[in-house]
Amino acid sequence: MTRYELWLLFHVLAAVVWAGGVFALGVAGISAERTRAPVELPVLARINAWVGPRIATPAAVVAFVAGVLLVVDGPWSWDDLWIVLGLAGFALTFLPGFFFLTPESKRIRDAVQREGPGSPEAAWRVRRVLLVSRAAIVLLFLVVADMVVKPTGDDAAVLAGGVVILALLLAGVVALFRAAPRPPEPS
Question: What digits encode the pLDDT tens for the residues 141-163?
Answer without folding.
Answer: 899 999 999 999 899 999 999 88
